[in-house]
UniProtKB/TrEMBL annotation:
<keyword id="KW-0648">Protein biosynthesis</keyword>
<dbReference type="GO" id="GO:0006446">
    <property type="term" value="P:regulation of translational initiation"/>
</dbReference>
<dbReference type="GO" id="GO:0043022">
    <property type="term" value="F:ribosome binding"/>
</dbReference>
<keyword id="KW-0396">Initiation factor</keyword>
<feature type="domain" description="PCI">
    <location>
        <begin position="1"/>
        <end position="149"/>
    </location>
</feature>
<dbReference type="GO" id="GO:0005852">
    <property type="term" value="C:eukaryotic translation initiation factor 3 complex"/>
</dbReference>
<dbReference type="InterPro" id="IPR016024">
    <property type="entry name" value="ARM-type_fold"/>
</dbReference>
<dbReference type="GO" id="GO:0003743">
    <property type="term" value="F:translation initiation factor activity"/>
</dbReference>
<dbReference type="InterPro" id="IPR036390">
    <property type="entry name" value="WH_DNA-bd_sf"/>
</dbReference>
<protein>
    <submittedName>
        <fullName>OLC1v1033761C2</fullName>
    </submittedName>
</protein>
<dbReference type="Pfam" id="PF10075">
    <property type="entry name" value="CSN8_PSD8_EIF3K"/>
</dbReference>
<dbReference type="InterPro" id="IPR033464">
    <property type="entry name" value="CSN8_PSD8_EIF3K"/>
</dbReference>
<keyword id="KW-0963">Cytoplasm</keyword>
<dbReference type="InterPro" id="IPR036388">
    <property type="entry name" value="WH-like_DNA-bd_sf"/>
</dbReference>
<dbReference type="InterPro" id="IPR000717">
    <property type="entry name" value="PCI_dom"/>
</dbReference>
<dbReference type="InterPro" id="IPR009374">
    <property type="entry name" value="eIF3k"/>
</dbReference>
<dbReference type="InterPro" id="IPR016020">
    <property type="entry name" value="Transl_init_fac_sub12_N_euk"/>
</dbReference>
Length: 175
């Protein structure tokens, strides 16, 4: 079915499911790419507005707002199995790019899990992902593995780029 050439044959339920699946593929640009194929008048329907808001919250790492809105929109999201786990994986990805050490409370908010479920989640990641959990002043801190984004010492060296001296020689030519 081609949405551009046969819009009358479009099933909004199927399109909504496709967009939910696209949200699950974050950080890939699937959601935005899918939106380009959907006519603007269809995007103005309530279910699509909600999915667009959810996408915005994910793209801006506003996980608390995302989970609050997702709770109000369960009817849209529950139709696709694995939604919550996919979004949790995306949240972990974002956190690992941003933090080297983070409080348990920030992790809990980002993945929308608390208590024993969070304990099991942490236990799994300590065992399988190289996380470390430390107690500091009565609070739990999660230490994530280093990567080039959360640890400046691992950044790629500037020698991979063009030296400033070479660029400076071009400026007089550009005049």
């Amino acid at each position: 079915m081609d949405l551009q050439f046969e819009p009358e044959r479009m099933s909004t339920q199927i399109v909504a499911r496709i967009l939910v699946k696209a949200l699950m593929a974050m950080p890939a640009p699937d959601f935005s790419l899918c939106l380009f194929l959907i006519p603007e008048r269809v995007q103005m329907e309530e279910q699509f507005k909600t999915l667009i808001v959810l996408s915005h919250y994910l793209e801006t790492a506003r996980f608390r707002q995302f989970w609050d809105e997702a709770a109000r929109s369960r009817h849209l999201l529950e139709v696709v199995p694995g939604f919550e786990q996919a979004i949790q994986a995306y949240a972990i990805h974002v956190l690992s790019l941003t933090y080297r050490t983070l409080p348990r409370s920030i992790l809990a908010e980002a993945i929308n899990t608390e208590g024993l479920s969070l304990d099991k989640f942490l236990e799994h990641h300590v065992t399988n992902s190289g996380w470390v959990v430390e107690k500091n002043q009565g609070k739990q801190l999660i230490i994530l593995p280093s990567n080039e984004f959360n640890n400046p010492e691992l950044k790629k060296s500037a020698s991979d780029g063009v030296p400033l001296e070479h660029i400076a020689r071009i400026f007089p030519i550009l005049g």
